[in-house]
Amino acid sequence: MDIVIIGKVLQRLLLPPGGFILFGLILTLYLFIYKQKGRTLAALTTFFLYILSISPVAFCLIRPLESFCPPEPKVSGAPCEAVILLGGGAVKRADLSCGGSLGGAGAERLLTAAGLAEKEKLPLLISGGSWQQDGAAEAELSFKMLRALGVGGYGLILENKARTTNENARFSAAICGEKGYKKCYLVSSAYHMPRALLLFQKAFGPHGIVLVPFPCDYQTEEPPRFDAFSFLPDLNSLAVSTVAVKEYLGYLFALVS
Question: Domain 82-216 falls in which CATH fold?
Answer without folding.
Answer: Rossmann fold (3.40.50)
